[in-house]
Write a structure and sequence with these properties.
The chain is of the alpha/beta class and about 290 residues long. The protein has one domain: Divalent-metal-dependent TIM barrel enzymes (TIM Barrel), CATH 3.20.20. The chain is about 45% helix and about 15% strand.
Amino acid sequence: MRIATAIVNWNSPDIPDVFPWMPYGEALDRMVEAGYDATEWGPSMPTDPDELREALGSRGLDLVGAFVGLGFRDRDRWDAELERALGIADFLTKNGGRVLIAAEAGDDRRRGEAGHVDESRGLTDAQWRNLAGGLQELARRLRPLGMTLAFHNHVGTYVETPAETARLLDETDPDLVGWCLDIGHLAFGGGNAIDLLPGYADRVRHVHAKDVDPDVLAQARAGGWSFGQALAHYIFPPLGRGMARIPEVVEALQRVGYDGWYVIEQDTAPDPTATARANRVYLEGLLGA
């Protein structure tokens, strides 16, 4: 297994107006400064594969994959969303990326209900079938590219809560759709990875490691904050300082032989580089790396 980072730690597309947007070259330099040798791609990074290859290669950084939100819940959006996702996948493969991390697209209402959703206003049965079908079709088309599809449970989308995450995994073919377990998003959404892993550990193909500050989460729920508001208040603290039971989750993944990537995301931090370094050291300690 390997540890990677993501440019979202320095440039968060969810709240681009709250924190200054760092030039991508500077952000990549900060990754190296924090001790990383691999990263996921993000929208503030080059979209030209040659430019990206030079930017990463000159810093000794490998490319892991990229995150994309997809609107498969609407059947009439399948063609456009498949084309978009496959375009991103093709771009990633040109620089060695092998994981496409897909989330449900969400909408303004769901983003406004982050961490305090009304599940009765979730997807209809038809929308669940659409979402599952679209993901499976995408996975089939990714295989010739040598790409893995890992579905990301994500706050602010229609697959946020433990029940929604379990339903997505139940609705999809395990041979096609893996799980990107985001430890922090699951805790933010009202659950804990420890409770879902006994039934779904074999679906984990990718891990996003983050923690959740219980005090900020309580404020977010009491105040009806949106996802962006929670990020601006640093809902994700350094690893090990929150409620997501990171050591237990890592131990559980080790027990089942998980050997994929751990991508450390915190999204927002007062000092992103120092925090990224501390998070790496903390996770290395848990993994015995």
